[in-house]
Write a structure and sequence with these properties.
elongated; 5-stranded parallel β-sheet; alpha/beta; Cobalt-precorrin-4 Transmethylase, domain 1
Length: 202
């Protein structure tokens, strides 16, 4: 069995509880160094940092015995721009998923912003559909180094739209920073790990 566990946006207090029994039963617990930091000390020896490339990651998991109990720790919610979809399709009938709190959900809670009418997207390894995004009232986006807050803001500006942006950096960590400003005021700077909300001004 491969159990994919969403551990929340970062700070362990936002992770879901009740995984101790799974950790105890696991043969291998995969995740980034940051993810593995949440493990209780008695299970730390089971931690494995997998390759980042999906093909190499798949090869590693397939190298384990078929009856091995494997846990994969991921940020946020595995099915909100996480590894959940890929895992369930790559290893059919072998995967169980435990949802966590996504960075998008966390940011919404910090600024009291309902998500009922929100569109969720990501710029990870792809160019977003900006025409679609800009036609919508409220968009949450997980960004990357190529398409971040400034690049998104410039797409707003060049269309002559009036939109507000909420930029959440290092969410749930001690150096968390949340900025709310008009798109035209977004600076061209280095933004830390972030989520952006683009919404119509009201």
């Amino acid at each position: 069995m491969i159990t994919v566990i969403g551990i929340g946006p970062g700070d362990s207090k936002y992770g879901m509880l009740g995984h101790e029994a799974l950790f105890a039963k696991a043969d291998y617990i995969l995740g980034s160094e940051r993810h593995l930091e949440i493990l209780p000390k008695e299970y730390a020896h089971k931690g494995v940092v997998p390759p980042k490339k999906l093909g190499e990651m798949e090869a590693l998991i397939r190298s384990y015995a078929d009856d091995a109990e494997i846990i994969y720790l991921v940020s946020g919610d595995p099915l909100i721009y996480g590894l959940g979809k890929w895992m369930s399709e790559t290893f059919p009938n072998r995967v169980e998923i435990f949802s966590g709190i996504s960075a998008m959900q966390y940011l919404a809670s910090r600024v009291f912003l309902p998500m009922n009418d929100a569109y969720l997207t990501s710029s990870h390894a792809k160019v977003p559909n900006f025409d679609l995004m800009m036609s919508l009232e409220k968009v949450f986006m997980v960004t990357d180094a190529k398409v971040g807050p400034y690049q998104i803001a410039q797409e707003v500006v060049k269309r002559g739209l009036k939109k507000k942006m909420i930029i959440g950096e290092n969410l749930s960590y001690d150096d968390e920073r949340i900025t709310i400003l008009p798109a035209e005021a977004v600076e061209d700077r280095d933004y830390q790990m972030n989520v952006v909300v683009v919404m119509d001004e009201r």
